[in-house]
Amino acid sequence: MEIVLEKTIKHRVERLPVVNDDNQLIGLITKQSIIESLFKYLKE
């Protein structure tokens, strides 16, 4: 997760695609979802 956040900040990317083994889009990782996940993790 930290590597994804680092790349999104470095390259000013708001969303990253998530693909399966067949390169089909199965979802998106957003910068906001990463921040929310980190916040929840840090609260524990």
Question: Structural class, from secondary structure content?
Answer: alpha+beta
Question: Which spans have pLDDT < 50 for at least 5 consecutive residues?
Answer: none
The global form is globular
The portion of residues assigned to helices is: 40-55%
Strand content bin: 25-35%
Total count of strands: 2
Question: Oligomer, anyone?
Answer: single chain
Task: Report the major sheet.
Answer: 2 strands, antiparallel
Q: Tally the helices: what do you get?
A: 2
Distance between the termini: 17 Å
Order of helices and strands: HEEH
**Biggest sheet strand line-up:** 1-2
The pLDDT mean sits at: 87
What does this structure look like?
This protein is 50% helix and 25% strand. The protein is built from two helices and two strands; from the N terminus they run αββα. It has one domain (2-43). It is globular. The model has no long low-confidence stretch (mean pLDDT 87). The chain is α+β, with helices and mostly antiparallel strands and 44 residues long. The protein has a two-stranded antiparallel ribbon. It has helices spanning 2-10, 31-43; strands at residues 15-19, 25-30. The relative contact order is 0.21. Strand 1 and strand 2 form a beta hairpin.
